[in-house]
Every structure is written in C-alpha cells, then in structure tokens.
Design brief:
- The complex is a heterodimer of chains A (184) and B (303).
- By secondary structure, chain A is an alpha+beta fold.
- In chain A, 35% of the residues lie in helices and 22% in strands.
- Chain A folds into two domains: 74 residues, Alpha-Beta Plaits (2-Layer Sandwich), CATH 3.30.70; 81 residues, 2-Layer Sandwich (Enolase-like, domain 1).
- Chain A has six helices and eight strands, in the order αβαββαβββββααα.
- In chain A, strands 2-3-1-4 form a four-stranded antiparallel beta sheet, with helices on one face. A four-stranded antiparallel beta sheet of chain A has the order 5-6-7-8.
- In chain A, a hairpin with a 4-residue loop joins strand 7 and strand 8.
- The longest helix of chain A is centred in the C-terminal third of the chain and has 18 residues.
- Chain B has one domain: Ribokinase (UDP-N-acetylmuramoyl-L-alanine:D-glutamate ligase, 3-Layer(aba) Sandwich), CATH 3.40.1190.
- Chain B has an eleven-stranded mixed beta sheet.
- The chains are: A alpha+beta (184), B alpha/beta (303).
- At the A-B interface, strand 6, strand 7, strand 8, helix 4 and helix 6 of A face helix 3, helix 4 and helix 5 of B.
Chain lengths: 184, 303
Amino acid sequence: MGFLNFFKRSLLKSPDKQPIPIRGILVFENTSEVIRAENILKKNGRRIKVMGPPPEIRTGCDLVIEFPLIEELNILRVLKKADVSPIKVVPVDNPLLQPVDLFQIKDFGEYLMVRAANMKLTVDKKRLTVVNISGGGCPDVPYLAGEMVGKSLQGAPSPNEIGHTLCGYALQLACEEMKRRCLH
Amino acid sequence: MLALIGTIPDITFPVVKGEVSLKNEKIYIQDRSVPVNRGTAALIAAAVKTLEFLGQSFPSACLAGDIGLGEGSRSIYESLVREVGCSGFTTIAFHYLQPDVDWHNRVLFAINDMAKRPFLIADAGFMYAAKMSGQAEAYDLFTPDMGELAFLADEKAPHPFYTRGFILHEENLASELITRAYAHKNAAGHLLVKGKEDYLANHEGILDSVNTHIKEAMEAIGGTGDTLTGIVAALLESGMEINEAAITAAKVNRLAGYKAKPTPATQVIEIINQIPSALSDILAMDQPVDTKNDLFLETGTNA
C-alpha cells in the first residue's frame, strides 16, 4: 500500500512541491489552561494535539494545542463557552502570520460594503438591513448568507455564533466593522 | 459529461448524485430541489442555462449538505474517491467544499485512475485545498477573485484569511500576483481572475482581459463569481477551447449582470435569468467586443 501511494504520488503534477500546513496553534496563558482546553476539545470530538510551541511564540507556557486551522471559528466558540479562551491563534508553520486586518470600504451611496480578508458584507444604509454577502469559499458562506441577507444588521445572527470556518471568521470581522460604522 | 461538485447550505441534505436541472429558480436533482441564491446552486444554475442555450445535455452533480462543519464535504470526497475513476466525466468543476488536503489528494489520485483525464476546474474551497496541497498544477483552470489571487500568490498563506498584508489585492497588481502565483507553482494551467476587469492568464502572464459592461455593484452581489465558473465549465464541456471559453464566459457573465440592472442589493438569480440573452448577444458577434469603445462601458462608482 505504501508503495502504491508512492507510485501514485509520482503521478501528481508537482511531486517536489510541499503542501502548506493548514493546522493552527492555540496559545494559552498557562499549562493548566492548555490541559483544560484539551479535555474540552477532545470531548467535543475535535482532532487536536498538545505540543511544544515554536520559538517565535514561546511565552513561558511550554505547551500549545494544534488544531485544523479551517475550524478556527468553531473551536474558539467551544472554548469561549467553557471560559478558556486562548491568548493567541496562529498557523503552525508560520506562527508569525497574522490574519488580514485591513478593512476595505466601498460606499455605493445607498449602500455600504465592508470587506475583511476575502469576505464582503453590504448593507442598505437607510434601512440598516444586510442586502448581500459575497466572497469566501468555505461551505458556511452560503449558509451565513442565507441566514443573514434580508435581516437587520442588528437582528441578523452573528457569524461568530453560527459560522464555523475562517471565512465565517472574516465575515464576523466585516460585520463588526459595519456595526461600528453604521450603529455607533 | 460535465460534473459539478459542491455543497448545499442545508445540514439535512444527504449526498445526492445525478442529472441536475433548473426550473422556477430552483435546481432539481433526484427528488430534491434547492433554491438558487449563491454558492454551488448558483454555479449549477448558470451551467444549466448555458448548456440549455447551446442545446447540450444537462450536467451531472454530486451534492451534500454542509454548513461549515465539514461532514457533507467529507461525504462528497468519499463518494468521489469510490466512484470518479469509472465515471466517464469529461469536465469536472469542484466548488464549495471544506478545504481538506488529505481528501483533496485522495480525489486527485482517483482521477489519475480515469481512463481519460477530464478537464479539471477548481474554485472556492476546493481551490484553496488544491493550492495548499501543492498540487495546483494538476488543474486546468482556477477561477479566483482578486482576494483569492493574492492568496494563490502568497506561498505561505494557508487560507485567504492569512494572506500577508504586503501582498495587496489591488486590481492594478493583477499581473504581479499572477506571476508570483505561477513562480511558486500555486496556479492551475490557466487562471480566469474575476474582478472589475477579468483576466485570463497562464504561466506566461496575462493573455487577455475583459472590461466591458462595468457595474461596480457586481462586486457586492454574492454568487457572481459562481456564475462565471458555471458558464466557463459549460462552454468547455461544449467543446470550446480554453482561451475562447474563458473570455466568452467573462463577457457573458458581465453582460448578464449589466442586463439585470444591478444594485448592491440585487440577488444573483436575477443575473442568472439574463444568461441566455447575454449568450445570444455575445455568441452572435462575429468580431471580438471592442473594449475601448463599447457603448455600455460605465465607470461610475454608483450602480
């Protein structure tokens, strides 16, 4: 079987190109929080591992939790519910990578669009309703759009509560920025 | 046969495979229907409209419910690994699937077992997985928007959310981003980049671009990229060569949007309904559209 896999790998177009790891690291204040978080996530059926941190993010704590990065929003929600939130979340292979933190704003006159990373949220400025959601590629994007479009900015469910992926997380950021601009 | 693979935002929707059709703004597959708003349903609706117009048979689809937890996507991956090898598909478009490198690679292995390799298109979550797996070059066409192009260009980013800040996704940087994506082997044979201006590129750089029928509002409308992927998939399946299919699809998608008189609140089904009329206009032209003097060119910021 191993030989077969090797043979199949050789049929791939870029056998020399290394995949980009898509796992993330949760960094906590102390080891007891790591252990508590581990128990909670394992009970929740999450595919996680407790490991030593890379030097770039060593904060005195000698353990971190590795998890599938795409599930970041979902995992953070589980931990928040249990009141054991990490102090930092970073990609495994590049712990210095930061989420896109720039918002791009487009004013269409009657409508305002906020883009965060790959997600765009558009609101009717007068009625303060969500009129469109675009961008993204994870399967919760059409779901979030279905749940939010047509509802008021205030009353629409938050992507933080019903989203599950990094695209959902980006939409949450866009939503927060939109609220900051329209409601405050 | 054209196969369209993706998820439906309904957790109760099981894995369903078969011919898919479109009626009364819903797609129909087996005994189930799905409203067309955005995502894979919009891609399918656009492909069906295009194939219908061309007098071709309806596409096949493999769908499952997934709201971001990944279960539906994994069911689709499993099904593909089991069955794609003997499916006889000639074109496959992969779409909204939870990015999962292991499953992505298993699907690619199964495709390698096919007697004749199909034309492979990837968009949305599956395109993310294709890039992250290091196997982007196994694909014939990716259809990223500018933000996703920046992600392809960033050799370190594991998801568009982590695209590094210095890799700006500005329209005027498209050429640099394309070069960088190919330099790091993170692009398919061809890229059809969706934006204010659409670009067709390969490893040599930008081959062609389309900037007709500019409507700023299109950027806000969810699903306009999905429709472009659906149209190009259908045109490729009809036998059109890649460069012609990509540029025709871009023109048709933009004209369909223009005809829908869009505002940022327009829903994508209104654009899909204009696809046959747009196809008729674009395919009837003997000469390529003159992008410099097009009467419909609009550059204002308000739709």
